[in-house]
Amino acid sequence: MILMTMMTVPFIAAGGAADDANQPVVWRQAVQSCLDNVIRHGTDRYGKVKTPMLMSIVDVRTNTSPQTPELLDGQIRAEGRPQRRNPGGSNLWTDQPLLRTLYAFSKITDDSRYAKAADDYVRYAFEHARKPNGMMAWGSHIFYDAYNDRRGGDGNGDGPHEILVHFAEWERMWRVTPERVRQEIEGIWRYHIVDPKTGEHNRHDDRQRGCDFAFSGGEFACAFAFLYTKTKDPKHLAWAKTVVGRHWNARNTQTGLTPDAPSTGGRYDAHHCFTTIPGPHAALVLKCYELTGDAFFKEVALTYLKAYVKHGWDAKARRFYAMLTLDGKPIMSQGSSSGYDAYKPTGHVEIWRTLMFSYEFPILTAQTYVYAYELTGDAELLDGAGKWAENIRAHLPPTVGRRWRKQILEAMPAVKTTNGTYAENYGRAISFFLHLHHATGEAAHLSTARALANEAAAKLSQNGWLKGHPAKPYYEATDGVSFLLYALLELSAHPKKLPSNL
Known about the structure:
Elements: H1 23-41, E1 43-44, E2 51-54, E3 57-59, H2 74-77, E4 89-90, H3 96-109, H4 112-128, E5 142-145, E6 150-153, H5 170-176, H6 178-192, E7 193-195, E8 200-201, H7 214-231, H8 234-248, E9 272-274, H9 277-292, H10 295-312, E10 313-314, E11 319-320, E12 323-325, H11 362-376, H12 379-393, H13 405-411, H14 415-418, H15 423-440, H16 443-460, E13 461-462, E14 465-466, E15 474-476, H17 481-493
Antiparallel strand pairs: 1-2, 3-15, 4-5, 5-6, 7-8, 9-12, 10-11, 13-14
């Protein structure tokens, strides 16, 4: 059995005590126990219609999904929009890494129950969780309200379609419902691309000019690249290249740095580069390359990755900067601001980030360097990954990030006792160090991954679940529990290497 209550364990850094030979079994049991709970207690048992959709929040003390969960860090992590947690509901986009874990666990164990749960979820969501325009009711603004059997979220469910950051399980969703998936992807071109010549896009599906964020543009391009692998229609490849070209054509050709959102005019994200570029955007562009083999995508992604190492690495402090001008100058640490400026990531990166989105993705960026090396064998990228490893190790053990520390301690006083970080941060860091070990053979990286896994299991295990944060009583999808589940599965399978979970 896995740990039923939270334990406090010392963090053993790389090169520390020998690893317990039984730990892979413990990690796999932790994954199985949580997935079993998800299947047994996490389905939509609410409202008049019972469905196979999986709930985003489950109280690990009661095995139920509250319609109105405790607010806790909801105002902070969700940037003042706690409905982004999908309270009382289900969100297939948020659960993309959960699908990946369910399918992977089915394959590893030869137990079809997990894949069936994922298939049933996908099938029902694509049939019933849709907007009037045909787009999915998923993403960061809307979800399926299980208590009322309808769309929920912004605008009482009439908010925008917006997809960000995740590697979508397009292939597996296509296998379940190909026509619906094609409709969704072609709808992205119809509703999100506002200039088909320049590739200007809007993160919302209103056909109007808006924020062309890098992590949504990469998402759109990756969807089009996937569709091209199915249809072989040149227009779908052209769509992907056109959208990637939006940020590529906005770059500083001398430095290779590009802004996060070129269309926002005078706002700082139109004139600065953040880890959104070498992180989620570059990762998704690399996926376009992996899917299509088109060298354009590789050139774009590698340019961004190499530019950020060159200009963003502070060799004296041995840390990365979080925000750069396009000519390569770092924006030094500034005091707190109000309005949209509150999300400006100045100074050095915050490794154990608090916010769900915003402009800072340090560990995902670290993962992207390893992923790029795995695809290309470019030693310069491996060197970049090594710098990220150094930066992350300097901030062990995981703790509350500095940018929002005051607000988090006020919202969740228990953090003072539990410490630790979000499940996503643990999961991404574990996976990063494990893949870096595979790439280099260095034992220190594997030891760090194992130490992080031990701490995460100790701090987040309760009643057979893994929670989203040590100070919360919830399994919570938007806290990234599925990233941790997959990382523990990866670690338990070592030395076998599983596909990346970016």
